[in-house]
Amino acid sequence: MRILFASIIALMMALPSQAQVTINGVTLPATLKAGDQSISLNGGGIRKKLFFKLYVGGLYLSKKSGDANAIINADEAMAVKLQITSGMISSENMSEAISEGFEKSTGGNVAPLKSKIDKFIDTFKKSEIVEGNVFDIVYVPGTGVQSYKNGQLQSTVEGMDFKKALFGIWLCDEPADEDLKQKMLGK
Predict the structure, then answer these.
(1) 109-119, pLDDT tens digit by residue?
(2) Helix residue ranges per DSSP H, the chain
(3) Do 48 and 80 form a contact (C-beta atoms < 8 A)?
(4) Tell me, what's the pLDDT at 9?
(5) SS in 3 state form for 75-107?
(6) Tens of pLDDT, residues 37-83
């Protein structure tokens, strides 16, 4: 019996493990679900503005990558997990920040995506944002971007054009936070 137990322990230790990561007191799980696919944490960091730590963000992909452009353009399952860590974030200023992010990620060309962006931003307006809220923004190929707040589906927005602009908020050449971008890319 001891030999069997020792063998099981040795086997478990030999298997590769993907660890969760704790950043600023927030634990990002090692994996998330995107539809029926499991995706893994690529990297995570803190979104800061001035000296405020606003949220912890994690990027989840089907395979590790440090190439922001390839990630933005990939028609593959992926997600961004955001956990609010500051009482300074409200529904109003989060909506404004997301709008600014779309402006930057599209090079100011938001008009073709306006209705999709408005639908997505409504995710942040449905109920007040408070410290501790968790947003999962999940892209499922063939379905679109599914937005969850605290595990409850808020909206689904279709289209690769929208997905590219959305993930560009964190990964484009003018991201919301350059340090967060680098951390999400695993650097």
Answers:
(1) 999 999 999 99
(2) 2-14, 68-73, 91-105, 114-125, 160-171, 178-184
(3) no
(4) 40
(5) CCCEEEEEEECCCCCCHHHHHHHHHHHHHHHCC
(6) 999 999 999 999 888 899 999 999 999 999 999 999 999 999 999 99
- Is 124 among the domain residues? yes
Domain that holds residue 90: 19-184
Give domain status of residue 173, yes or no: yes
User: Could you tell me the pLDDT band of residue 17, with boundaries at 50, 70 and 90?
Assistant: very low
- Structural domains in the chain (count): 1
Strand 37-49 versus strand 21-23 pairing type: unpaired
Q: What is the CA radius of gyration of the chain?
A: 18
Q: What are phi and psi of 67, to 5 degrees?
A: -100, 100
Residue 160 CA, chain-centre distance (Å), reads: 16
Contact by Cβ (8 Å): 85, 25:
yes
44 contact partners, CB below 8 Å, separation of at least 6? 21, 23, 28, 56, 57, 58, 59, 81, 183, 184
Quick check: is 13 in a domain? no
The CATH number that applies at residue 62 is 3.50.70.10
Query: Is the model more confident about 7 or about 113?
Result: 113
